[in-house]
Recover the amino acids of this structure.
């Protein structure tokens, strides 16, 4: 991929990812804090994800030269144009 294509792919991040990332970062920070305060990693609670979201950025897919099958698009929660 050219530098120009790479820059256009990384330049935009859809807003709907912000909440998911900030929530995940808070959880990770809490776990790191527990470890730094002496808790053994084996004693940490295990959290399993209960919700999953699938989003396809069609602009990025086209920039990368990818063709997204219609069956895959039907499974997505959000298609970003």
């Amino acid at each position: 991929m050219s530098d120009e294509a790479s820059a256009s792919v990384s330049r935009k991040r859809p807003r709907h990812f912000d909440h998911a990332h900030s929530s995940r970062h808070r959880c990770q920070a809490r776990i790191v804090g527990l470890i730094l305060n002496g808790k053994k990693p084996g004693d940490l609670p295990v959290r399993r994800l209960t919700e999953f979201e699938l989003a396809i950025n069609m602009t990025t897919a086209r920039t990368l030269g990818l063709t997204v099958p219609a069956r895959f698009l039907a499974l997505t929660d959000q298609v970003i144009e």
Q: What stands out?
A: Residues 5-11 have pLDDT under 50 and may be disordered. The first helix runs from residue 3 to 11.
